[in-house]
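Supplementary notes for students who missed Thursday's class. We covered one full example, reproduced here. Read the sequence, then the structure, then the short commentary at the end.
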Amino acid sequence: MAAHSDIAIIGGGAAGLAAAIFAAEAATPSGRIVILDRAKTLGAKILVSGGGRCNVTHEVVRPEDFNGRRTIVRNILAAFDAAATVKWFSSLGVELKQEPTGKLFPISDSARTVLHALLHRCEELKIEIHNGSDVTSIAHATAAASSYAIRTSSGEWTASRVIMATGGRSLPRSGSDGSGWQLAAALGHTVTPTFAALVPLVLGPTMFHASLAGISQEVELSVFENGKRIDRRAGSLLWTHFGISGPVVMDASRHWVITRESGGNPEMRCNLLHPDSFDEVERWLIDQATSAARTTIINALAKRLPERVAGAILAFCRIDAVMTCGQLPREQRRALAHALTALPMDVQQHRGWNYAEVTAGGVPLDEIDFRTMESRKVPGLYLAGEMLDCDGRIGGFNFQWAWATGYLAGSAAGSNARDL
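Structure (token representation):
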């Protein structure tokens, strides 16, 4: 015989835990709320985020920080903003600190502080957590006694309300592989194509990245398709043994990945001397030829770039590093200026779903009521977090999306369950 719950939350990640807590706080004390999650332990993504510190949110969160229907995103974020997140975590016993970048972390610098606080609050509210419960089907029922029949690997449930927060395809080893979209599609929802986002990029063997592994620098990256620029952003790039990573790469990656996997042929170029243009850099090189004629070109570049990067760029342009600035011919000077301001990055592929921090794509936002996160197609079904077609840039924005959508879904489902 199937066990009954008032509200079943499918998925116990950030959005699912938030939804469960807010649902329990909004429902009657006697309401039975369960979390069904396929993993043996909850919160794997929380624990690995932010280098194990968990970047809970950002000082300023705007709709422009997200890829998605901006008008809908704006309304969702307004319902539970960054200030609300700070206050909420404080109420859970987790104080946050702001870093110069605007990122907010727990003062403990430990993601376990965040996860333990969420799980402790679930325990206080008597929320049942059923680990190892892989949901294989959800059927919408018409019987008054239960709206949904949920089949899992460990048994069957009925539920008056269901909140789906199963995550996307990123970090599948954490238990999130995108299978929740199949459940949503079976209930009548659309699922847009999904792509890896916030993912490091692998460069080809013609590049010099391996020799620069560990070096970080400020750059501007641009992604082009058929000669048209489709994305441009500045930030910190990290050279690695496999290619490139760092905040600016992670943010730009979704545009390269979506274009490539949609059948396009994207190009990525890097301005190593941002914000200077080609003309400005060429003028600077001409000035060096007169004001520092006897200075070697590598020493001149090392004033503006990490020395190893300067050496790699000169080798890439086939310029003798010990040539003086006064000896640099016009053709080589222009080739160097081009390489410094529009270096072609030979991106071969992204590093894989196990390294992607978030998924682009999912259930369209116009298929949910942004005031409650309830499905417009299936009454009593709510969706939250990464399942939705909205992804934020790096810096705590995707966690803010999880808290905000979890708050709306949980509060609405809890209030509705109370009224049954």
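Commentary. The chain has two domains: 3-195+355-418, 200-286+305-317+335-351. The first helix runs from residue 14 to 26. If anything here is unclear, bring it to office hours.
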